[in-house]
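Lecture notes, part 5. Sequence design as translation. It can be helpful to think of inverse folding as translation between two languages: the language of shapes and the language of residues. The source text, in structure tokens, appears below.
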């Protein structure tokens, strides 16, 4: 029934009461913490709703409906040597494991599942390698489609930390080699292309693609810098456009980077002093820092954004913090902190 003027306040109150979101936090432990964001008259409130027992060190998740895909950053799984990826089902009581695949190497740090391509892409930080797993029947994890180990000859040992997908282009962000490695998917096969060197000593950790602007934003771990690249979507190549400061505090380590819901702001986290940096994207496609938002914790390894809400996982504080985004200015202001499992490394919205 539509709201009449007399019922407007009641309808608004009901809408606020019904507006809530579930958040999952995982990390270097055997648990997933379930959180809930509830809208109240005084603003959003973050609270813990459950703790689910799972397998060890699920440091990256991808949620597809009621299915959760996970990367286990381990050197052995179930007594078998190698890192692992797994598939789970979310239930009312927690999560049920459906499947697991042992990888040909150790310590996967990032997992990206493409249901459309029927492939799962894995960056193996400790295994110095990149693995692609086939998806049988669209959702089931299958056999190994591609595996490449990167040898010596760079600044450090190779440490792939993320895979990124745009169209048929795939990039592997190699923190140890100061390199973005380029691939293409053709007929479900992986074709190796070239590389893009980044700033020497940057330690590239994560990057994100602005689909409308054809821009790529890359955050460094070892140097406090964000790089901006122009994406050529005809060949997947990247052209450096800008380098901008991340944290002003010496000794910080960059972690995560993401684009705001309107596409007008970019957010990046820095561990040490515990900051989220806010950048405005200008008309000439440059980043302009507009805010240095200090969190309640010091080690914001990962964060997730949904609408006007951000949830940040503080790895060394064993906690998650709710942050609100001003929809007009993109600026941040703080909210509740709640305890999670030990060393949270990943956070995501599931509804």
């Amino acid at each position: 029934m539509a709201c009449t003027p007399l019922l407007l306040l009641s309808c608004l109150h009901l809408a606020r009461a019904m507006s809530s979101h579930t958040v999952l936090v995982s990390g270097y432990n055997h648990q997933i913490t379930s959180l809930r964001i509830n809208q109240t008259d005084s603003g959003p409130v973050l609270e813990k709703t459950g703790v689910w027992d799972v397998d060890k060190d699920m440091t990256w998740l991808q949620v597809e409906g009621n299915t959760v895909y996970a990367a286990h950053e381990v050197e052995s799984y179930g007594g078998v040597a190698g890192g692992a990826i797994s598939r789970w089902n979310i239930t009312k009581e927690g999560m049920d494991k459906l499947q697991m695949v042992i990888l040909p190497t150790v310590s996967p740090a990032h997992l990206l599942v493409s249901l459309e391509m029927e492939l799962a892409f894995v960056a193996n930080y400790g295994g110095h390698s990149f693995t692609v797993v086939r998806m049988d029947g669209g959702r089931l994890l299958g056999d190994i489609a591609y595996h490449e180990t990167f040898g010596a000859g760079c600044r450090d040992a190779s440490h792939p930390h993320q895979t990124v997908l745009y169209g048929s282009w795939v990039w592997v962000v190699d923190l140890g080699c100061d390199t973005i490695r380029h691939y293409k998917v053709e007929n479900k096969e992986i074709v190796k292309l070239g590389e893009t060197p980044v700033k020497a000593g940057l330690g590239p950790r994560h990057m994100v693609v602005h689909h409308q602007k054809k821009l790529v934003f890359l955050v460094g771990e070892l140097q406090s810098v964000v790089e901006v690249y122009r994406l050529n979507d005809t060949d997947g190549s990247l052209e450096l456009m800008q380098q901008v400061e991340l944290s002003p505090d010496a000794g910080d380590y960059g972690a995560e980077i993401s684009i705001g819901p309107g596409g007008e702001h970019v957010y990046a986290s820095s561990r040490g002093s515990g900051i989220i940096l806010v950048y405005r994207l200008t008309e000439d496609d440059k980043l302009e820092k507009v805010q240095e938002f200090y969190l309640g914790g010091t080690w914001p390894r990962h964060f997730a954004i949904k609408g006007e809400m951000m949830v940040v996982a503080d790895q060394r504080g064993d906690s998650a913090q709710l942050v609100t985004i001003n929809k007009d200015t993109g600026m941040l202001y703080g909210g509740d902190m709640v305890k999670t499992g030990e060393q949270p490394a990943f956070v995501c919205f599931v509804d």
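The translated text above is only one of many valid answers, since several sequences can fold into similar shapes. The two ends are 25 Å apart (CA to CA).
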